Amino acid sequence: MKYDLIIIGGGSAAFAAATKASDLGKTALMINGGLPIGGTCMNVGCMPSKHLLTVGDEFFYSQRPRFKALQTRSKVAFGTAMREVNQMIARVRQQNYVNVLESLEDVTLVEGMARFTGRNRVEVGGKIYEADKVLIATGSSTKVLPIPGLDRVQWLSNVTALKLRTLPKSMVVIGGGPLGMEFAQMFAHFGIQVTVLEAMSQILPKHEPDIAAELQRCLEDEGIAIHTGVRVEKVSERENRKIVTFRKGDGLEEIETEEVLLAAGIQPNTSELNLSAAGIKANKNGFIEVNQYYQTDNPDVFAAGDCIGKMALEPVAAKEGALAVENAFTVPVRSINYDHVPSAVFTNPQVASVGITEEEEMRRFNTCLCRTIDMAMVPRASAVNETRGAFKMVIHPRNFKVLGVHIVAPGAADLIHEATLAVKHSLTIDDIIDTVHVFPSFSEGIKRVAQSFTRDISKMSCCVE
Length: 465
Known about the structure:
Blueprint: E1 2-8, H1 12-23, E2 28-32, H2 39-43, H3 46-62, H4 78-103, E3 107-111, E4 114-118, E5 121-124, E6 127-136, E7 140-142, H5 158-161, E8 170-174, H6 178-189, E9 193-198, H7 209-221, E10 225-228, E11 230-238, E12 241-248, E13 251-257, E14 259-262, E15 266-268, E16 301-303, H8 314-329, E17 343-345, E18 350-355, H9 358-365, E19 369-374, H10 379-383, E20 390-395, E21 402-409, H11 412-424, H12 429-433, H13 444-451
Parallel strand pairs: 1-2, 1-6, 2-3, 6-16, 8-9, 8-14, 9-10
Antiparallel strand pairs: 4-5, 5-6, 7-15, 11-12, 12-13, 17-18, 18-21, 19-20, 20-21
C-alpha cells in the first residue's frame, strides 16, 4: 500500500506530524523503532526525570526546612520511587500516545527499524513501504565521548540511569549541561555524593554566565562538587570502583566513584537510515541538513526534532513536526523563530531562558543594554525566606524592546512565559512596568528587572511603578 506520508519515529515530532497529517486528510504510516512509543521525552527524558526530581526535592528539602518552626527527618524508598515513575510512564504513554494514535483513523503504526531503499521508499522488517512524502523524526541519544578507557567500563546514560533499582553511594556526572545538572541534583537529593565535570568554563554553557554562576552557587551549597574548565583524561576500574582522571589547569586529579553518568551532549539517531539512498545529506555530526521549511535535499523528504540539531526540546520537536507536514502538503512558508522559544532546566531552583543573551546582543549591535537583579530584591523572596536566584533582562539599545530574559528562580519554567510573550510581541520595558503584577509573587522579578533600567530598585517601596 502506498501512503501519502511515512513518518519515521514515534516521539513528539512524529506524533505532531501524524496529527497534522490527519487534520489535512492524509493517510500516514508511522514507523517506530528503538524506544517505546512516545520517544525520549515520554520514556527516558522529560517525564520520568521531572517525576524523580520532584521526589528528590520533597525528600531533600523536607530535611532542610527554610523555617525554624519545621524540623523533620525521613528516609527515601528508592525502589518505590522507581516503581512509581514506571507506573506514571505507562499511564501517560497510554493516555497521550497510544490512545491518541488509535483516534487517528488514517494513521497506521508499524514497529521496527526503518532504512531508505529509494528516494520515497523505506524498508522495515523485510517489507517495502512507499509514500508521496516522508518525514524523518528519529530523535537522538547520548553522545559517546572518545575518553580513553570509557569503552571498558559500564557507564550510565539517561536511559540506563532510570533503570537503577538501588542507589549507589557516589556518582560522577560528565557534562554540566541541562541534562547533567538535572540528574546531578536529582541523585544528590537522594543522598548520593555527586561530582560534576564540565569541559567549558561554566555549567550550562549556552546560558548567561551570571545565571549559570548563581545556579552553581546554589548546587554547591547543597553539597554537589562542580569542576568547570576540565578535561577528562581517562576512565578506569579498580576493585569494582570506577576511577575518573581529569586535568584541571596544570594538574591531574582522580575521583573514585561507584557510577559514571555520561551527559555531555547528544548524537542524532540517523546512522542506520541509509540516507544516501534517498539523496539526503547530513553534516559531519550526523544531523540531517534541512532548509528553513524542514525540507532535505530530497524535496519529498522532510526532517524534524532532535535529528536536525536545532533545539533539542520536546515542544520544539512537536512544532517542527507539525510545520514540516504542513509545508510538505501545502505551500512551504512556515518555520520557527527560535529567538522566541523558551527553555528550562528543572533543577531547584529552576533556570529558564528566552531570547538572546548579552553576548549575542553584543554580536548583533556592538553594544549591550542589560540588567541583572538578585532574587533578594523581590518582596516575595523575603516573605517566604527563599532568596536563591536572579533575573536578567536584555533590551534593544535604541527602542528598549525586550530581546531576552534569563531567570534562575523557584518556578522559573512557569515564570518565563510572560517574558516569552514580551520577546515574541516586541514589548518594551515600559509595557512590562505598566502591567500590574500580583503582589507578592516571584513574577514581580520580571517587572523589577525591567524597572532597574529606569530607577534604583534598592530604594523603592513595594508595588511602585
